[in-house]
Write a structure and sequence with these properties.
It contains five helices and no strands. The N terminus is likely disordered. With 136 residues, the chain is an all-alpha fold. The N and C termini lie far apart (56 Å).
């Protein structure tokens, strides 16, 4: 049937009326199922996934803010460089130590490398043009 698909996704196919998952874990399971990862409904596992996700979302919002506020441009570029290249480094280490992951993860690696390189180029540009380095 729909092996590897979350119950939330299955329920949407059977009943398309708007409805939130009974728990946020159901939504996360759909995301991870796309990579062939089954996370279950264990609160500790869900917490361990949600905490870094919230951290990444917060950093992403701050990085994105630098697009619109010149006083945050250097900070945003520095954070983007660190975040994206750290993810890429971790994924490359995983490939070396653990083997090749699913195609979606390899695609994410490529996107992270490009985004990290673009942020690094932006950071170098802000440093050479003397833009603010701190929050004001």
């Amino acid at each position: 049937a729909l092996h590897g698909t979350s119950s939330f996704v299955r329920s949407k196919a059977e009943n398309p009326s708007p409805q939130w998952p009974r728990s946020w874990g159901e939504g996360q399971q759909g995301f991870y199922a796309g990579y062939g990862i089954e996370i279950g409904n264990h609160p500790t596992m869900l917490s361990e996934l949600r905490a870094p996700g919230a951290n990444l979302a917060t950093l992403g919002a701050l990085i994105f803010t630098g697009v619109f506020r010149s006083d945050l441009m250097r900070l945003s570029a520095a954070l983007g460089t660190v975040v994206f290249l750290a993810f890429a480094f971790g994924r490359l280490m995983g490939i070396v130590l653990d083997g090749m992951p699913a195609e979606g993860i390899v695609t994410a690696l490529a996107i992270e490398l490009v985004a990290g390189a673009l942020c690094l180029l932006s950071l170098r540009g802000t440093m050479s043009h003397g833009l603010p380095a701190t929050l004001s």
